[in-house]
Design a protein that fits this description.
Blueprint lengths: L1 H19 L10 H10 L3 E4 L3 H7 L1 E2 L3 E2 L7 H12 L8 E4 L4 H12 L5 E3 L20 E2 L5
Parallel strand pairs: 1-3, 1-4, 4-5
Antiparallel strand pairs: 2-6
């Protein structure tokens, strides 16, 4: 009997950890879709990378530059996003980073703060399993305005 309990406990832990660490995120957009919506004015696109990354690759055209490593932490990041969308927690927001990993974290933070339409550009600037990325797709970039 104890062996069966250990086996069931082990299976339960594997299932729980797979779900908790699966990297599941909310809604996603491809880089071309994010670009099109940003250019149409129907999406606030935010590049959450660091200034050195912005300087290295440029910034997705039309994207705001809000470093997720904000001096006031996640709360400061959320406050800066709030200012950019005039406090509208239903405003469509697209988050982009290098490969879509950091955007998953910040998408979750914004959703927990009450934002209802936060999209993850999962392929990011450099590409990932979700797609080739903003740069490889030849989408336009702008020089970093505050690096």
């Amino acid at each position: 009997m104890p062996l069966k309990r250990y086996a069931l406990a082990a299976i339960s832990l594997v299932l729980l950890s797979t779900t908790a660490c699966s990297g599941e995120s909310g809604p996603a957009l491809s880089a071309p879709d994010a670009y099109a919506q940003s250019q149409a004015g129907t999406l606030t696109l935010i590049d959450i990378r660091r200034p050195d990354e912005w300087k290295q690759t440029g910034v997705a055209q039309g994207a705001l530059q809000i470093n997720m490593a904000h001096p006031q932490g996640t709360a400061g990041f959320i406050q800066q996003v709030e200012a950019e969308v005039d406090g509208n927690k239903d405003a469509p927001i697209g988050l982009i980073c290098r490969t879509g990993n950091r955007t998953t974290q910040m998408q979750r933070a914004l959703t927990e703060a009450g934002y209802t339409r936060v999209y993850n550009v999962t392929e990011g600037m450099a590409g990932s399993g979700a797609g080739p990325g903003w740069l490889a797709r030849g989408l336009p970039v702008e020089a970093c305005s505050n690096c």
